[in-house]
Amino acid sequence: MAALTAGQLLDGDTGESRLAAGYDSPVKRVRGKAVPPGGCAQEAERKLLGRDDLRSEAGVVSRINTESFSSSMSTPAVKAVFAKWSSCMK
Hints:
Blueprint: H1 2-5, E1 8-11, E2 16-19, E3 29-30, E4 33-34, H2 39-49, H3 58-72, H4 76-89
Antiparallel strand pairs: 1-2, 3-4
């Protein structure tokens, strides 16, 4: 786990790493071998993405999903469909 994460957690919104619980500093070496910044998992992600910036749009997508659901629940058409469904389920 130390080599995989370097004792860090990635914040997908900011692309910044922070120390995981139980670590006083980032892990630099495991069994005498150098650990890349952020661990092997972040190194693999950088290579797969082809960039150093590991920020994700997952937070934006989640906010859009939540806000659009809330907004849709106040529209008359959606209210009518849910009322019909609820009636059917009774």
